[in-house]
TrEMBL record:
GO terms for molecular function: N-acetyl-gamma-glutamyl-phosphate reductase activity; NAD binding; NADP+ binding. This is N-acetyl-gamma-glutamyl-phosphate reductase. It catalyses: N-acetyl-L-glutamate 5-semialdehyde + phosphate + NADP(+) = N-acetyl-L-glutamyl 5-phosphate + NADPH + H(+). GO terms for biological process: L-arginine biosynthetic process. Residues 5-140 form the Semialdehyde dehydrogenase NAD-binding domain. It is an enzyme of class 1 (oxidoreductase). HAMAP family: ArgC_type1. Belongs to the NAGSA dehydrogenase family. Type 1 subfamily. Its EC number is 1.2.1.38. Its main location: cytoplasm.
Length: 359
């Protein structure tokens, strides 16, 4: 099979670096270009010591990267990315976008981000959570890779959504590593401010990932296991609170719901019964492991796996679902390469890391 020429925008950022670490090992990919404004003209090692010696071209400007590729990965900030995507699609390229620019319908994007820079593009995008959109991803010209917090929360809760067990209100709390804020994060992300510290942020229903959580859970409740990106469906209300904790990588999502006591399955709920439903839901998934042990972030660090578990609290009638993933792995670059593989009919784990590193 001929190799696809793949270009990466935002290659000097954390998401970009993790894309390169995966794409250099992919048997059906040649990395044809890397873009950075800060490092244009320099070798990759000038920016990334961990990639010194890898078979990668020097950084150049974004337009040259777009012109030279078959498939473009965008690891650039939301709002800045849509114009690149528009130009790449117009030039007949396929796009895998790690930013938030094509995840939501234009009216929802406007509510959380402001006016959409290229609203027509949204209709061409497939949401890149492969476990739920695998069929729809095949042949997709534009993949909108989910956010890291949403990947964790939605993988934790999707089996409950399928069974109608979300109840009236969904609470999603995440602990997130600092690399989630990107390499260019500002004051407040420096070591002295983070070390020995844990702090919530964007609380009170203000985090832009709330819309993505509600979208995905609504889709699963409405359409079942293989869902469509667009369409009419009711959304649950999600209360989402992220917490920044002093670790480099990782997301741990802890999600609590109270199923309707009148629901036909409510009387038979137990942890064992829930784990069985989760195992059914994720059976055969190469990158999601359902386990009885409670997930922890170190077990997925450096990998593209997600660990999921669930508990029933009989006393309060609540279900708590957990997911752990690496925000730069399954939560960004790993999820992106998995969706790229699904879109192109490649083996889904090509280029990916199915095991983590420990310690
Ligand atoms: N970090 C994470 O855990 C996750 C990140 N994402 C998303 O992935 C994308 C990248 O995030 P991350 O790698 O963390 O961010 P970083 O801040 O680490 O990197 C951002 C990259 O974008 C480039 N860039 C910034 N502004 C522009 C611009 N106007 N035009 C062209 N290039 C630009 C920068 O390169 P230079 O300045 O050299 O040009 C840099 O390479 C974002 O959309 C983010 O939301 C998604 C899931 C998880
Ligand atoms: C620690 C931290 O700040 N995390 C970021 C993660 C954002 C992210 O990467 O998600 P997108 O792809 O949607 O931008 C946040 O919570 O906003």
């Amino acid at each position: 099979m001929t190799r696809l020429k793949v270009g990466v925008l935002g290659a000097s950022g954390y998401g970009g670096a993790e894309l390169l670490r995966r794409l250099v090992t992919h048997p059906f990919v040649t990395v044809s270009g890397l873009a950075s404004r800060q490092f244009a003209g320099q070798a990759v090692a000038a920016c990334w010591p961990q990639l010194a010696g890898a078979a990668l071209p020097a950084f150049e400007d974004a337009e040259a990267v777009i012109a030279g590729c078959d498939v473009l990965f965008c690891a650039t900030p939301h709002g800045e990315t849509a114009p690149f995507v528009q130009r790449a699609l117009a030039a007949g390229k396929r796009v895998v976008d790690l930013s938030a620019d094509f995840r939501l319908a234009p009216k929802d994007y406007a509510a959380w981000y402001g006016p959409h820079p290229y609203p027509e593009g949204c209709a061409r995008a497939v949401y890149g959570l492969t476990e739920l959109h695998r069929e729809e991803l095949r042949g997709a010209e534009l993949v909108a890779v989910p956010g890291c917090n949403c990947t964790a929360g939605n993988l934790a809760l999707a089996p409950l959504a399928l069974h109608g067990l979300l109840g009236e209100h969904v609470t999603v709390n995440v602990l997130t590593g600092v690399s989630g804020a990107g390499r260019s994060a500002a004051l407040g992300f420096h070591f002295p401010e983070l070390n020995e510290n844990a702090r919530p942020y964007k609380a009170g229903g203000t985090h832009r990932h709330t819309a993505e959580l509600e979208d995905t859970l609504g889709r699963v409740a409405a359409f079942g296991r293989q869902v469509k990106t667009r369409g009419d469906f009711a959304r649950p209300t999600v209360s989402f609170t992220p917490h920044l904790v002093p670790m480099t990588r990782g997301i741990l999502a802890t999600c609590t719901v109270r199923p309707d006591p009148e629901h036909p399955e409510a009387a038979g709920l137990s942890t064992a019964a829930l784990l069985e439903r989760y195992e059914d839901f994720y059976r055969g998934e190469p990158l999601v492991t359902v386990q009885e042990d409670l997930p922890q972030t170190k077990a997925v660090s450096g990998s593209d796996r997600t660990l999921v578990s669930v508990r029933y609290d009989k006393r309060s009638g609540t279900v708590t679902a957990f997911a752990a993933l690496d925000n730069l792995g399954k939560g960004a670059a790993g999820g992106a390469v998995q969706a790229f593989n699904a879109a192109h009919g490649f083996g889904e784990t090509l280029g990916l890391f199915t095991q983590g590193v420990w310690p």
